[in-house]
Amino acid sequence: xxxxRKILLLGSGFVAGxxxxxxxRRPENHLTIACRRISHAEALANxxxxxxxxxxDVNDKQxxxxxxxxxxxxxxxxPYTAHxxxxxxxxxxxxxxxxxxxxxxxxxxxxxxxxxxxITILNEVGLDPGIDHLYAIKTINEVHSNGGKIIxxxxxxxxxxxxxxxxxxxxxxxxxxxxxxxxxxxxQLMQVAxxxxxxxxxxxxxxxxxxxTPFREFYNIPEAQTIVRGTLRYQGFTDFVKVLVDIGLLxxxxxxxLTPDAPDxxxxxxxxxxxxxxxxxxxxxxxxxxxxxxxxxxxxMDRILRGFxxxxxxxxxxxxxRGTLLDTLCATLEEKMQYAEGERDMVLLxxxxxxxxxxxxxxTWTSTLLEYGKPPGPxxxxxxxxxxxxxxxQLVLDGVIEKKGVxxxxxxxxxxxxxxxxxxxxxxxxxxxxEY
Length: 436
Ligand SMILES: *[C@@H]1O[C@H](CO)[C@@H](O)[C@H](O)[C@H]1NC(C)=O
Ligand SMILES: *[C@@H]1O[C@H](CO)[C@@H](O)[C@H](O)[C@H]1NC(C)=O
Prior knowledge:
This protein has a domain at 5-127 and 378-428: NAD(P)-binding Rossmann-like Domain (Rossmann fold), CATH 3.40.50. The protein is an alpha/beta fold and 436 residues long. The strands form two sheets. A seven-stranded parallel sheet has the order 3-2-1-4-5-6-13, sandwiched between helices. Strands 8-9-10-7-11-12-14 form a seven-stranded mixed sheet. Helix content is 37%, strand content 21%. Helix 1 (16-23) crosses helix 16 (380-397), helix 12 (267-275) runs parallel beside helix 13 (282-292) and helix 16 packs across helix 17 (412-424). One of its GO terms (molecular function) is saccharopine dehydrogenase activity. Residues 126-427 form the Saccharopine dehydrogenase-like C-terminal domain. One of its GO terms (biological process) is lysine biosynthetic process via aminoadipic acid. Residues 7-122 form the Saccharopine dehydrogenase NADP binding domain.
């Protein structure tokens, strides 16, 4: 019989379920689920055997040390800014760590200490980052080992409602937090959003993420002329956000009239303030918005204003004052744009590689993952983030992944076993080749 393994899971967000379910298939695994609020830990722990819920504030160094010291491995699903605290404690007690977050400079700073103490801090093992790296490295390696070159690498990923659940003016819903909308880039990036075909049935717009250049080094493709990583949304979303940006509704400065102790204020009045008009009638607000926006065709503008109405921006509903316009709007969006019971989400990831083979032939290679949520089971997002995380944690526990340091899945020794196990879980990336 295998020796008992003790795993400390920090955080119980919706991606935790598939990771926990995966790990607990092995009878030797025991999980402690730690959240600041014990009720959150209990809610998850109640669904599985061999789990213990505890209350833990990771800012309490002593409590964190005590918890970390009693386990074999830590999975940290809390916000990435708290990972350095966890890594510091893990190094002190020589425990391995797995996260789904990007390696931040503050995390990377522990690389040497992790190596010296012989521990593995494996990050970026979710979907994006995570599955995207696995299938980028796999193909790039295959091309290079056959003497070929990567001319261009273009990769887009979207976590979206399934088509039938895209039933609102933004064609978007919040599966975790509305902070998603905050990451939406400003004017310029929204203007470079372009229609993008993966499957003709999906009306996607794609826009590049801020900076993809480090991936030239991370993916070892110095020869690539083009490297783009970006985000997919349904068409309509970007126009809508452009109007929100243009009239100033995504402003992230504090506004006096939105502080918690300011008097109640309706959306109609907030909109009038933002537009700088005194007549707060719906018709005047509509006319004023339209007058400020250029470059959007009339019929699209009608749809966008219908969206404003649907969100309640012309209404006499009081806003939930959250200090800034951005946060106040997010509060309303979060409420309106939830998944209803039984609605599916969808994850689509596609890499497109332009390849030049050893004998000078041009080929296009694609790697595509399309996954739907399975209500009332886990969402596609939870499955595609949580499963690779659970797999990676098991591989570290089993000593299959044994590289030391602060790592991301950029090398074959790490990616191959994760891919092999993902496929066993039915998370399959379809790899195709188009010759010209
Ligand atoms: C955001 O709001 C602040 C305070 O009202 C204002 O000074 C600033 O110009 C606004 N920023 C933009 C980009 O509109
Ligand atoms: C919109 O409001 C601004 C004041 O912020 C004003 O200068 C402009 O004339 C208004 N446009 C329309 C069409 O009412």
